[in-house]
Protein 1
Amino acid sequence: MHTRLVTPMMKPNLIAAAEIDRLDTWAKYSAPMCGSCISSCCTLPVEVKIKDLVRIGVVDEFELGDPPKNIAKRLQKEGLVERFNQKSGIFTLQRMSNNDCYYLDRKSRLCTIYDKRPDTCRNHPKIGPRPGYCAYKPKEVVREQNFRAIEKF
């Protein structure tokens, strides 16, 4: 899927929408891309450490003495964590049924915990499946895809 992206003082550009599971379709990252993207990076699994969970506010500092396995069980029951890797100490945050991050606002497509977001998110795309690249998907492409899907009905 391609769309024309035109901004003031720019020539039209042909922009390809990335496929989240195909790293070869990801675009070289530049900060201005985020404003016109559907937040596709927020559909990737978010791996966090215990300090991230404290910052987010779902783990109390007093719990840090508890076995991480017990913390993981509680967070899984609360629907905040998908899984926990005991060997690495990495928790994977729960995602919505459409793979959106639990903390991504569905309408605005903005992070609801931006100031407290995990290090994984703070450092994206410096770290991640393809460092320096992102799964950029322009909002216009998504609108076109949704419009075509509606037309089929």
Protein 2
Amino acid sequence: MKTEDKIPLAYFITFRTYATWLHGDERSSVSRTRNKVGTPKIHPNKNLETQMQALQKDECVILSREHGDVIREATVNLCNKNNWRLYAMHIRSNHVHLTIKADDEPEKMMTKIKSNATFALRKKCGFAVDQKIWSRHGSTKYIWTPESLYYTSDYTTECQGQKMAYYFNL
């Protein structure tokens, strides 16, 4: 049986806040055309980073602890409503990590989570209706083994520096 035919144990989903990791910056990045395993990343390039900054429609978004609490509450409620099993979540100043199990495709879950969090942030924290909060898409990795689920959940909550808003229920 091919890997694509198997159902993963869970997913590790990551998405970033708007304009906090631009193509060309020192960390390198992936794009729509450079996002497959083995595909070279976009290397640091100050000119490219400057071009990306010029294309920004809004300021970059940095999340506070209050924002994180709102995102966590909205996400836990969404998971309960959709019967998704949330194992771990950590909302950082510029990104969100989740370890989650569901029958839905991870890309669809990520879109729903970002949309729901956006609605909650606008309602409770005063984000403008036209302000971009999240970068486009994110990362969706498949978790195949109980060991990987444990380590990914541990990484999500314990290996991200000082804790901000988080959830853990393994």
Protein 3
Amino acid sequence: MQPRFVFLTGGVLSSLGKGIGASVLGALLKARGLPVRLRKLDPYLNVDPGTMSPYEHGEVFVTDDGCETDLDFGHYERFIQTPTTKFDYITTGQIYQSVLRAERRGDYLGATVQVIPHVTQAIKDFMHNHLDPDVTLIAEIGGTVGDIEGLPFLEAVRQMKYAMPDRVCCIHMGWVPYMTTAGEYKTKPMQHSVKELQRAGIQPDILLLRCEGTLPKTVVDKIGLFANVPIPRVLMAQNQSHLLSVPLAYHKEGLDEAVVDYFHLKAPAPRLDVWKDLETRMRDSEPVGTLAIVAKYGHLQDAYRSLLEALMHAGLHEGGQVTLRWIDPDEVDDAFLQTLDDIDGVLVPGSFGERGHQGILSMIRWARETQTPFLGICAGMQFAVIEAARHLLGWEQADSEEFTSSGPLVIRQLTDWDQQGEKKSYHAHDGLGGTMRLGAYPCVLSKGSRVHALYGQENISERHRHRFEVDIRHRDALTSVGLLTTGLSPCGRLPEVVERNDHPFFVASQFHPEFKSSPLGPHPLFCGLVRCIQKRWHEAKANPKERVHAVRQPQ
């Protein structure tokens, strides 16, 4: 038995939602009892997105085994409830890197190394490697059909389709725009997109028509005719009010049934009760409290995609969604702090670089002094430690080695660490790519601590992405001013969690909890934060005067 391959391409424009489409198809097939796996082929020349700007790429999602990937991998894991690995992500940079290494080793026996067959064979090898024989692999091809970077990937798909016509299904997603002035949907962009795909030698088997509303039958029929795709396989992918509505909408349209029929599989109808329940809870949830997210890249919310999803998951679990207020740390000053009467919680996510340094510290101090629920993540934990060192220990020059080489450095650069049993080290001349503590690491929580109560267990595993660590040598000093280290690496050298026991909720983690949250398994740290925000909001609603007084008169 051989695996089945479903390739998902996109056309007309970018940001169509191919990642969501692949994730939802995976969830629907899994709900029918079929084993699935998701992969992505990204055509850019970067080896991985680890050194790319958040403004260019958005979030960098990290897998358990330490692979830095596209944000779509967060969707993959959240929808199919299965961890992805480094074997599920490939870029043109990785492909060319492997081909050039093979050429240097002499693997090609003196042959002229070319895109065809050597690069395309490397892509096909990637698609076949590390697969169970009965699995359905859903592979998203990044970018848009017609991009020059994507041509080798399309050629590899064409060759696989030629070699295994019954084992390869090609789904093409494209935008069908609505012309307000003409009062009609226009089919030409989608037709041309399919023609471009056909020019690469690929005939799509299923079409997904992204659209704002219900398409007239005449539009669907016309696209099917000119794309040479049977009408039952020309499916609408309408905009939905919320992400959790997409699985039910795509199932209603018949996406999973079309794939099952294409492969002639015998699979029971999907069990979608859990998705129906989530959709109902999302539709009925009401705003309960306001959370300030102090973020450097707040105007590009894709830079925090998993974080936003994790907050939504916690809201579903706790019975109400928090309203988000994005705060640029560069805008925070004393006058700004007087405008926060409506804030019920503060979250400082991960970031790199010194910009916004002082504004972040001011917001953390405000949250601490006003007893406002606070969660710090990665750099957010490091800033929480710096804030305590400066304002409670009196170390006015306390800082991170990331920003300075002088003063009491409570945050130090990591130079040696263990990753998945392999010893790693960092030296400045090595460059930046892949030189962080990446992936899942164990953490031991202190019994009796808040985080221990939230997790309900002592030993946990969470994912990391950082190059700097809290210096364990300052643990006792920080404890003396109420900032407790309640999560440590098993060796006891690396602080992973800090919290305050004189505060309703003041928790910060060196790891990224958002990477392990899902609609069916909300993360305990986010649930704890949202629960405290809701409690504060209800109390303030009952006594609004006391709330204003508490905010404006720090302790």
Protein 4
Amino acid sequence: MRAWINTRLRELAQAQRIQDARALRSEFLVE
């Protein structure tokens, strides 16, 4: 069970990182 939670947290963290990268890229494109 704990391994599953760790896997989910890692996936969520990676998805969040991807969203942050997209947000930064869109901000740079606007300027």
